[in-house]
Here is the input.
Amino acid sequence: MRKTAKKILSIVLSTLMIAGSSARFSPQPDESAFTPIANAENTEKDGFFEYSVENGKATITDFDKKYTGDLIIPATLGGYNVACISYWAFYGCEGMTSITIPNTVEIIKNGAFADCTNLCEFRVSDENKNYCAYDGVLFNIEKTSLIAFPNKKTNGYQVPVFVNEIFNAAFYGCCDLKSVKIPDSVKNIGTQAFSKCSGLSSIEIPNSITEIPEETFCDCTGLTSVAIPNTVKKIGTRAFENCTELTAVTIPDSVTEIGWEVFYGCSALASISIPDSVVSMGGGVLGGTAYYNNKNNWKDGILYCGNHLIRADKNTLCGEIEIREGTKTIAGMAFADCENLTAVTIPEGILEIGYGTFQFCSKLKSAHLPDSIKSIGLYAFDHCSELADITFPDNVEDIGWCAIDGTAFYRNKSNWENGVLYCGNHLIEANSSVAKNYKVKDGTKTIAAAYESMSRDGGFMYNNELESVVIPDSVIFIGPSVFFNCENLKAVTIPESVKNMYSSTFEGCKSLTLFVYADSYAEQYAKENGIPFEIISKPIIEPPTEEPKPDEPTTPKIDAIVGTKTVTVGGTTVLAAVGGVKAADVRSAAHGAKLLDRFGNAVNDDMPLASGMKLVFHSAIFEIAVLGDVDGDGAISVADARLALRQAVSLENLNGVYLFAGKVGGENVGVSEARKILRAAVGLDDASEWLK
Here is the structure.
């Protein structure tokens, strides 16, 4: 059964990826596009049908493959209206000759009728509001999406001009189909759309198409030629796999990305041109082709196609190598298992070190990466056990999980700073000894992805001691699952510089509040992912509106004001306080005092004191500095610690009361002051101690 086979295949591939085997495999595409997902544990049977029930409606999940003849799908199963036909539900029902769909059906999933080899015609109830049949072909009711093509239809087919989408697996297994003409009205061709069309010898791909997705023409063993239009930007994983009659392919300059094993098993493919426009390439692209098997195409143990490094021969390659100048890409897993490789120098211009590129190069000691590198794929240097010399350049914008797992660099304890491993200016992993309230070091560019199915593999995963994290404004990328299941994480400050996070980045963080800037990517991210957040206010620095007059009394009975004291800074008298003092406390202690906010407006009694407020007392005006409240919002928070730290490293220019508010432990605002403010913000220190 296809469902079981797919599940087993997925498990096997996952195991291979974790084990690092050199066997042929690739990272999985989006399985939801073409994998059965029926939950067998919750299904029931009614005659030939297997179905599940949800919200009072039935979904057909499987069908008896022994059925023969015309099939009329019933409107109800087990007393429930049939509303959905699930993924691959009728896959491989070779005996069916026609299918009639009732008016109750609302949703038909990918591949529902794939590989029904004797199916001649679709029929749909005239009362169905979602689907229709036209010339025996299944469409949505608007006829803009071609859903499924009956396998037994022969010869050629002209896709109607009113169609703008070909559904996933729409022509899957149409072995007798000889040719297809697709009009320019079609903008999208789905995953596996023409997979296993073994009789298909030619196809016209329109100029309206920008992507050839996963397995589109996989196993089209009769396909002899293909013209890829110059509108296509991406060719997906296994798009032309096992097209055994394909002899030549020219990829246009528009293409920038080539997926995994795109031409794998195209045994007759001897001529192929890959343009310099390609900047990302998966592994196994030419595996099993005539080009790959031609020894004349290999030089010094390395196979190139144009300026693209496809594969290195693990049995030939040894010692130190310099990848040739002008190389545009290094394909995924290109050097995997090259156990005799000891050092590699990569030239400028290459943008990506892909999935498993150097995985299990057990004698590799050093890798010199150019500044042009922007992406480090998962498992890129995984288990290069002797690799001690490696630095990821600052231009790297994303790093996959296990990028340097198992390397000598990873195992070297001296490379870990207070429980955290950095590679260059990139945070790779934090272990359980990291501080409860951690500040990512300034200058950090990315926080590498983590892998949620492992107990410890990247980021801060599963750290139940972690309570707060401050991320500096140098960080642009926070990878998937970085804070996965940090159940006691309460606060993470995310700067405006961060432009990329994932839905799983904070998955399982039950107590989390994000501190973000207004209108930032982080604010939008918090809203979209349902994470509580608070807006960080930037301080507004204003001079006093009026200078105190020297001939008037300054502050009679000022020491009687609860929780405050006076200090003199640069000739200006400042009233200092700590958090928790309310306006009412000041007024009750200093009769006749007026309290104004930074804009000169009267302050309500229940408002807390905040840096920047002004006290008018006996005709004198005093500015208020609440120690620790560096941003002037009246609270001591992680945001204040961040501002203090930025002042300490000259990234911020605080002055006046805001500068004084940061001086909680010395004459200047330094890293220690930032730490004290952070500790007070999360309840580890008592801010009132600062006034002693």
